Structures are given as C-alpha cells and as structure tokens.
Amino acid sequence: MTQQNLYLGIDCGTQGTKAIVLDASSGKVLGLGAASHTLISGANGRREQHTQEWLDAFTEATHRALQQAGVDGQDILAIGVSGQQHGLVLLDDQGQVLRPAKLWCDTETAPENDRLLQHLGGESGSLERLGVAIAPGYTVSKLLWTREQHPEVFARIALILLPHDYLNYWLTGRACAEYGDASGTGYFNVRTRAWDLALLRHIDPDGRLEAALPELIEANQAVGTILPAIAERLGINPNAQVSSGGGDNMMGAIGTGNIVPGVITMSLGSSGTVYAFADQANVSPQASVATFCSSSGGWLPLICTMNLTNATGVIRELFDLDLAAFNALVAEAPIGADGVSMLPFLNGERVPALPHATGSLHGLTMTNLTRANLCRAVVEGTTFGLRYGLDLLRQTGLQSQSIRLIGGGSKSPVWRQMVADIMNTEVVCTEQSEAAALGAAIQAAWCQSGESLAQLCQRCVSVDAASRTVPNAGSVSAYQQAYERYQQHVASL
Fold this sequence. Notes:
Blueprint: E1 6-12, E2 16-23, E3 28-36, E4 40-42, E5 46-49, H1 51-69, E6 76-83, E7 89-91, E8 101-102, H2 110-120, H3 122-130, H4 139-149, H5 151-154, E9 159-161, H6 163-172, E10 176-178, H7 179-182, E11 188-189, E12 194-195, H8 197-203, H9 208-211, E13 215-217, E14 222-225, H10 228-234, E15 241-243, E16 246-247, H11 248-255, E17 264-268, E18 272-276, E19 290-293, E20 299-305, H12 309-318, H13 323-332, E21 341-343, E22 360-362, H14 371-395, E23 402-406, H15 413-423, E24 426-429, H16 435-449, H17 453-460, H18 473-491
Parallel strand pairs: 1-6, 6-15, 6-16, 10-13, 17-23, 23-24
Antiparallel strand pairs: 1-2, 2-3, 4-5, 5-8, 7-9, 11-12, 14-15, 17-18, 18-20, 19-20, 21-22
Helix pairs in contact: 2-3, 2-4, 11-16, 12-14, 13-14, 14-15, 15-18, 16-17
C-alpha cells in the first residue's frame, strides 16, 4: 500500500468554513467537513462577522473532515488556509481582535472609497498607480472608515490582517501576508508586488497603518509550525506546517488546475467570479477587471459579481422552494423567461460597477408573471452578469477552450447548460467542487513537500467527465437576444 501524505485544506468563506483532508500521494480527497457562520447585516450595506465564529467553525469543520476521512490527525503534514478576500481584521498589541471583521460584501464604506478614488485620480489613476481600480469592497476604504468612525479603535491598531492572514496568525502566532490576497487590499501595487506605503500615509500620516502591515512571503513559503495549543484543539500533528494560504479565488485557481494560461475558472457561489491565470501583469484598461496576483507565482485577472446564489436563494425562499423544485421551475420556463428580465442587484453590484443599485424586474405582464418565469429570470440575470465579465476578460486577450465550473450552482445540470449556452463555451465541473479548500491543501503539499505545483495539480485536480456540457447552437442565439435585452436594462440605470 502506498504511503499516504495527508494535508488539510481550509476554506473560510462568507457562509461557512469547509475543511478537506487530501492524500497528495493518491490525489484523493478522503474527507470533507463543514460548519456555518452567521452574518451581521446593518444599515448602509454593513456586512460584518465575528472572528470567533471562524475559529469555532475551523475547529468543527476540521474534526468532521478527519472523522469522515477515518485518519489520525497526527498524520497531517501541513495545513493551507483559503479566506474571503478584501476583509479587514484589526488586532491590538496583545493580538486581540478590536472589532468585528468587515467583509468583502460590505458597501458601507462606498463614500470613503469614492474619496480615495478621487485622491488617486479616478479609476484610470488608480489603475495606473496600483494596477487595480479600488472598489468599495476592498480593504483600503475600510481603514479610512475605521479612522473616521471609530478613532478609539484606530488608535489601538497594531496589526492589519486579511481574513486568511488572521487565521494563519491564530494557527502560528506569526503575522504575514502573501501576494495574491494582498493584491486585493487596494494599498498594494500588483505590478511591483509591493505595499503602496504613500497611500497608507495619506490615510494616516502618523504611520500607524504602515507599522501594522504584515510581512509579505512567497506563495510556496511556510508561515511556520502550528502552535501546540491549537494543534491540540484541532486534534492534529503539532509539527504540521502552515503554508502561505491565500484568498479564496487564488486558492480556487489552484484547486481547478488554473495555474497556466488557457484555463478559465467560473465560480457560482454566493457571488460569481470568473478568472484566468496570466504569466504577465497585463493590466486591463477596464476598471472592472482586477489584475490580482495569483497564489502560485503569476497573476490572476478576475471579475467578481456581488450577486449569485445569494440572489437565487432569496427567490427560492420567497416561494418556499427546495433546490429540486426551484431547478424544475427554471427548466419549465422558456429561454428569456417569456420576456421577464431581472437585474439581480440585491446587494449593489460590482460588475457592472453599480454599488448603489437595487434589484429590479422588467417586462412583467398579466400573462408572464409566473413563478417559473421569475425563477428563470433570476438565474439568467445572475449568469448574464458573468457573461458581461467574461467578455471583459476576453478583451484583455485571455482565451480558453473550456470553462471549469465550481461553487454550489455548478451542481445544477440546468444551470450548467445555461452557462455553456450563454458563454458559448464548453463547460466542465471539477470532481471536487470545494475548489478553494482543495487548492489550499494542494498549496500546503507544495509548500511542505517541495514537489512542483504542476505535478500536484495534475494528480489532485480531476474533471468530472459526466458534467461536461456543450453549447446548443439554437439556445446560444436565443440567449444572445435575452442578453442584449439585459444589457439595455443595465444601460438605462
């Protein structure tokens, strides 16, 4: 029997934490565990979370994954952590969290972002200086907001961490960041791969923020060894290494084998993302395209929509439908939902850039106002947002023969066919839909074993042949008409 080489991958997302146990020798995922988080929602788009929930969910998900895998936690060689991008965790000089984490989907800081954007010379100035156009979800506006709204908290800041940086700090006691996740802060230059200290000094001339920055490490470097007390709490090997980890999109790229040019990953999660690996920092003139660094040594041009399964979920709940009944109604309605269009911007929207938008329905009549049409309209509306983003990526020269589909929505055959038809591209799911957790485990193996990332991805990432979905020519043209209608509605906002 081949010796097992076991690694733990953690994905701390918005709705919960997932843990997987990967045997890097066979490339098989042996166990999966999950635990949920709650969201603090408030006026003006406030979206926050208590970090203690992450730690509790991390522990619970790990125990469940180890139990399902039927392995001894003492055999875990290393851990990799994926976290939601752009969030802000502030620590004092005792390592204590100063206030709830502000999340990527928080739009409360839109006014602060506008002012910072103005300081940078608008979107074009931001692209020129940082390589990204800062958006309300990014970390930088959260820092200005904290300074102005919570000066007593600001005065005690000793460390500024992203969610996955914080989890690494909890695991090891060391504060550091890696280039992929750092590039989504808004105070990092993606071309030079360095912090923009002048921008932080603009927010805080006293230098507190600059002093609170974590050290940057390479993607294949370990943060350190797990702390004995945390190893005991998780039930794993006290000598386990903790890899650099990264943002959920960066880890999702590794977990779908998206580490060389030519692959496009599309995630149908709470939000929608589309990204592709690039070996050069070709910054798009389109502000909606974020040319982040990857967590595998290159770049990861990416677009992100704010509304996906969070929007379809609201319609499901409205009609009190389980997933199967919802999908059946979507399939029942024709392409274009009999003329009903939904702009699903329930959480504002990032692509297209409409942070203050709200959701809306168009084209309703006495005859087309049905549950089936509304269910189809919300799925079409969210998918059209992804098509809009994919078109922007393709304009930067990124090409691909197929799309690797991940996230909860990818499990629906109806939705997979819709994506293939709307994008006019073959779609295939990876066998492991928890791509970010898998990517984190693969990165942990890369970091600990010294084996090449390409070899590890080849062995550990496999596509589900049964999920392969090709576009239907008749449907492609019907969707094109519905997409153009969607574009007209968006243009009128």
